[in-house]
């Protein structure tokens, strides 16, 4: 009886590790890939010293940062100051519990998978607000206020985009969302929503051109100005892990998850997890490409885009999609 | 089953303790953070009851949006707690009255026949397992039986939204606003004007 609980517990721990460890390793390589791609865009060589082609650069950076002294400002609110990076990191890993990498390859296949992802990504703002407030310093506080307003604004249009996809699927389960795209990926019929979702994902993860919370030309380093060493590493890892999470969410909602582009012979023997990874890498490349190409938005432009452009448009698209589905009697059961 | 009870007691005890901390914490920001912890644990309890949709809605709406703005406001305001505590004795009778009324109401609720069934039933509550997802069940009941009430809720929210916008909208004159369309339509013919300037004179 007791052994059963123990074995179930061990299986759960093993499943969690099987997801979290690859995610953390891919974060390290994502940082390397970002630096290399940015270097190529700017006609530089990028990291090329540590290991072959500099591939171990991120690990060297992580070791360097962790071995440094962790400074906690004397005027800060210590408990909240230490909690903030931990919350950011935990939340960016928590979302992975419901991501289906391949048919059946999911830690927890819950009914409300997409709602869970939405909830976890909307909680991400707490790490930033707590960091900004607890630092007891002007720049982090300004960064925190900016990010609070920004993330709440873009969540609204993300919500509408998700509703549009759900109207076409008829379920909140992520595996069912992927299976509903067997005939056509949602990126094709819902192309404008795909674009809105991608841009909102940039804003939600505080990436350029929407990285105003950590705007280095006006706010030093934004909300993590006062952080050093291991707590800084946690913020850094959290940001990149949530970037990969948002990319996986985009892939599941619009690019058919683990499904091959066409269900024909040489493509459909490739394992689903490889298709999933390839698509996630493609979206991540877009993230980095946007960072290397576009200038940063001004704060009022950011708010205007969120509330005056995306919100009305996505609301219109929800109504249009549901009208279309009802009129042509294509509503899923 | 043991695991189920253990998680129930974990969530409920943290929820109650953090609710206590909300009213006893000295720092208002800590109060709000404890309120958020309490919300999250309440949503954990919903998951244990098998109401996963409600749990997620609780997190998305209350924790992800309402509490963020609440925290935002509390951080911006400079609340002097010593000053707030001054009137403690003055408000004590009123607060005590409210508390007593609430306790009596809860007592009546537990003693009536309807709830005594649950109260006497010693087996722990089990999550209701059914073929239909509870998201679908909520939709089916909300858009049929409670359709008018649901619409009225929507209208009330709309009125509240318009009300708050009109309260905060101030149309001050002399504010320079960016008109992006007019900026984008600018070209050389509208932006540049050629003028012959006579020597020794300005424009």
Short summary:
Chain A is an all-alpha fold. Chain A is 68% helix and 0% strand. Chain B has 203 residues and is mainly alpha-helical.
Description:
The complex is a heterodimer of chains A (333) and B (203). Chain A is an all-alpha fold and 333 residues long. Chain A has twelve helices and no strands. Chain A has helices at 2-41, 57-67, 78-94, 113-134, 138-169, 174-179, 191-204, 216-219, 229-254, 265-268, 272-293, 299-327. Chain A is globular, with a radius of gyration of 21 Å. Chain B has 203 residues and is mainly alpha-helical. The termini of chain B are far apart. Chain B has ten helices and no strands. The model of chain B has no long low-confidence stretch (mean pLDDT 81). Classes of the chains: A mainly alpha (333), B mainly alpha (203). Chains A and B meet through helix 4, helix 5 and helix 12 of A and helix 2 and helix 3 of B.
The overall strand count of chain A is: 0
The secondary-structure class of chain A comes to: mainly alpha
| Number of E-type strands of chain B | 0
Q: Would you tell me the structural class of the helices and strands of chain B?
A: mainly alpha
**Order of helix and strand elements from N to C terminus of chain B:** HHHHHHHHHH
Quaternary state of this entry equals heterodimer
Overall pLDDT confidence of chain B: 81
């Amino acid at each position: 009886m007791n052994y059963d609980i123990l074995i179930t517990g061990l299986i759960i721990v093993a499943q969690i590790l099987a997801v979290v460890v690859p995610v953390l390793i891919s974060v390290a390589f994502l940082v390397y890939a970002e630096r290399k791609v940015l270097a190529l865009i700017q006609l530089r060589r990028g990291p090329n010293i540590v290991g072959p082609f500099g591939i171990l650069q991120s690990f060297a950076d992580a070791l360097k940062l962790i071995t440094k002294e962790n400074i906690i400002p004397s005027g800060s609110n210590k408990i909240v100051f230490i909690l903030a990076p931990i919350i950011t990191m935990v939340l960016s890993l928590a979302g992975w519990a419901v991501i289906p990498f391949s048919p059946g390859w999911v830690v927890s296949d819950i009914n409300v998978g997409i709602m869970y992802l939405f909830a976890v990504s909307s909680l991400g703002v707490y790490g930033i607000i707590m960091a900004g407030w607890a630092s007891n310093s002007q720049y982090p506080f300004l960064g925190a206020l900016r990010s609070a307003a920004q993330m709440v604004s873009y969540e609204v249009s993300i919500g509408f985009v998700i509703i549009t996809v759900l109207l076409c699927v008829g379920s909140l389960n992520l595996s069912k969302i992927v299976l509903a795209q067997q005939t056509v990926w949602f990126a094709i019929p819902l192309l404008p929503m795909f674009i809105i979702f991608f841009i909102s994902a940039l804003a939600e993860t505080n990436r350029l051109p929407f990285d105003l919370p950590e705007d280095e030309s006006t706010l030093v380093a934004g909300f993590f100005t006062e952080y050093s060493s291991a707590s800084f590493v946690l913020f850094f890892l959290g940001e990149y892990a949530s970037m990969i999470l948002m990319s996986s969410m985009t892939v599941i909602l619009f690019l058919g998850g683990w499904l091959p582009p066409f269900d024909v012979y040489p493509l459909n023997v490739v394992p689903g997890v490889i298709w999933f990874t390839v698509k996630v890498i493609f979206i991540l490349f877009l993230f980095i490409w946007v960072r290397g190409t576009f200038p940063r938005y001004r704060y009022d432009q950011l708010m205007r885009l969120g509330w005056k452009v995306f919100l009305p448009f996505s609301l219109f698209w929800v109504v249009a999609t549901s009208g279309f589905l009802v009129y042509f009697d294509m509503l899923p059961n | 089953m043991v695991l189920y009870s253990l998680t129930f007691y974990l969530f409920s005890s943290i929820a109650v303790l953090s609710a206590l901390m909300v009213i006893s914490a000295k720092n208002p920001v800590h109060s709000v953070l404890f309120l958020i912890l309490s919300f999250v644990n309440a949503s954990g309890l919903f998951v244990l009851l098998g109401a996963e949709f409600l749990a997620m809605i609780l997190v998305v709406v209350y924790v992800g949006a309402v509490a963020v703005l609440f925290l935002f406001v509390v951080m911006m305001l400079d609340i002097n707690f010593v000053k707030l505590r001054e009137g403690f004795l003055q408000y004590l009778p009123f607060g005590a009255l409210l508390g007593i009324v609430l306790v009596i109401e809860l007592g009546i609720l537990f003693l009536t026949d309807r709830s005594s069934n649950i109260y006497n039933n010693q087996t722990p509550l089990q999550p209701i397992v059914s073929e239909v997802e509870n998201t679908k069940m909520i939709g089916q009941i909300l858009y049929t039986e409670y359709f008018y009430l649901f619409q009225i809720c929507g209208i009330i929210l709309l009125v509240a939204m318009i009300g708050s916008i009109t309260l905060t909208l101030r149309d001050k004159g002399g504010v320079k606003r960016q008109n992006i369309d007019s900026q984008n339509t600018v070209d050389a013919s509208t932006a540049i004007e050629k003028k012959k300037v006579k020597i020794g004179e300005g424009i």
